[in-house]
């Protein structure tokens, strides 16, 4: 086993009221009881994220050096084989580079520190550990890092409940740190965000006192008889009860939206408040549909067949084979350049006309597909072969959609 895999990670138990699920149980307290005893189903993508965390932690403990021993290796994570690809290692390296660039001599850093003993003093179901925390005594600054390997959904850092929970745990576990400021850092190297792939949020440490009160009150609400269920896009995304179709509130809202009359005539009978409520419910239904499509897409990529559906290459778009050569051929056309770049093939075609463009295009234009998508069997495109999908290891926007 140890020779075959770079490392092995077995499934582990998490605190019921953990930091990673804080968004859910703070906003939907009833989800805690509904989810109790239900498995947190691990996908291959979650396993890849866990593997990346392991490599990141090991590298931090090794003086922030990414060891070459990981290259072209495979790990076994919660039953999933995970290839430690160049893409994965590059993402971890970007996280390490940020740490190196933003920490100073004298800073104290702790990696994967458990704050469960300290947090249990607030509530017996609290607990967890941090990816990395840094203490800078000269500035009385606590910095909390969280590495996100996911490429599909950008995670906001501003007032992030999970990272604020980590900050509380770090300060309770290290009472000698008299922090004045707290900085939250989310590193998500494979996912673009308007604030950057690595983004920060800074606030005064004293504000955590109010958050501690919110955590304790939220924990008490999860224990109440008939605790409220409040489905939302964020709360339901990773909720075991939602994934297992065990949430009556989510089912009720889904049914209500599915039964509404959205014909051109029928929509007129609803009030503005009702329309607003439909708009609120829509992301929940979209999330459930997306989950089905993502599941089918991932399984189909692994070679499983679903009657009436197939994986196909996304419709190709035209691109320049060699932009410099294309610029030499088309650059003198009025309007062809948007300094300093050449316009797209489609835009140049509009400028020149199809006939004139077509005579020159073959030498300079190629059609390139940006990935794969799930499509119905009636789609004229040929099904992709499993070998084609071997390196397509990121669930992108196409996984949640089907092309008609």
Characteristic terms for this protein:
404 residues, alpha+beta, Lambda Exonuclease, Chain A, five-stranded mixed β-sheet, 15 strands, 16% strand
Quick recap:
The protein is an alpha+beta fold and 404 residues long.
Describe this structure in words.
The chain is an alpha+beta fold and 404 residues long. The protein folds into 3 domains: 215 residues, Lambda Exonuclease, Chain A, CATH 3.90.320; 69 residues, no CATH class; 95 residues, no CATH class. It is built from 14 helices and 15 strands. The strands form 5 sheets. It has a 5-stranded mixed sheet with strand order 4-5-6-7-8, sandwiched between helices. Strands 1-2-3 form a 3-stranded mixed sheet. Strands 9-14-15 form a 3-stranded mixed sheet, with helices on one face. A hairpin with a 4-residue loop joins strand 5 and strand 6. Helix 3 crosses helix 4, helix 6 crosses helix 7 and helix 13 packs across helix 14. The C terminus is likely disordered.
């Amino acid at each position: 086993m140890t020779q075959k895999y770079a490392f092995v990670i077995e499934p582990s138990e998490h605190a019921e009221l953990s930091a990673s699920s804080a968004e859910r149980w703070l906003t939907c307290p009833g989800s805690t009881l509904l989810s109790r005893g239900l498995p947190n189903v691990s996908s291959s993508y979650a396993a890849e994220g866990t593997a990346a965390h392991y490599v990141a932690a090991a590298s931090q403990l090794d003086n922030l050096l990414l060891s070459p021993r990981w290259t072209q290796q495979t790990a076994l994570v919660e039953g999933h084989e995970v290839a430690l690809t160049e893409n994965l290692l590059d993402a971890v390296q970007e996280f390490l580079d940020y740490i190196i660039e933003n920490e100073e001599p004298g800073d104290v850093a702790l990696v994967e520190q458990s704050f469960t003993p300290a947090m249990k003093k607030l509530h017996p179901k609290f607990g967890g550990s941090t990816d990395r925390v840094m203490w800078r005594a000269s500035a009385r600054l606590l910095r909390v890092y969280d590495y996100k390997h996911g490429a599909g959904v950008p995670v906001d850092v501003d007032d992030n409940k999970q990272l604020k929970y980590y900050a509380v745990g770090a300060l309770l576990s290290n009472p000698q740190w008299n922090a004045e400021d707290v900085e939250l850092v989310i590193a998500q190297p494979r996912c673009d965000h308007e604030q950057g792939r690595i983004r920060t949020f800074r606030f005064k440490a004293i504000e955590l006192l109010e958050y501690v009160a919110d955590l304790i009150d939220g924990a008490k609400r999860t224990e109440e008889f008939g605790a409220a269920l409040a489905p939302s896009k964020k709360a339901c995304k990773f909720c075991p009860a939602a994934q297992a179709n065990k949430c009556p509130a989510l089912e009720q809202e889904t049914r209500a939206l599915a039964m509404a009359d959205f014909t051109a005539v029928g929509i007129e009978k609803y009030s503005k408040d009702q329309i607003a409520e439909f708009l609120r419910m829509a992301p929940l239904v979209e999330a459930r549909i997306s989950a089905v499509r993502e599941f089918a897409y991932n399984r189909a990529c692994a070679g499983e067949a679903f009657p009436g559906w197939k994986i196909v290459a996304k419709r190709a778009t035209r691109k320049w084979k060699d932009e410099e050569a294309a610029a030499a051929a088309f650059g003198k056309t009025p309007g062809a350049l948007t300094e300093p770049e050449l316009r797209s093939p489609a835009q140049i075609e509009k400028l020149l006309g199809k006939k004139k463009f077509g005579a020159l295009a073959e030498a300079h234009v190629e059609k390139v597909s940006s990935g794969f998508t799930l499509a119905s069997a009636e789609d004229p495109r040929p099904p992709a072969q499993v070998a084609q999908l071997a390196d397509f290891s990121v669930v992108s926007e196409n996984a949640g959609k089907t092309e008609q």
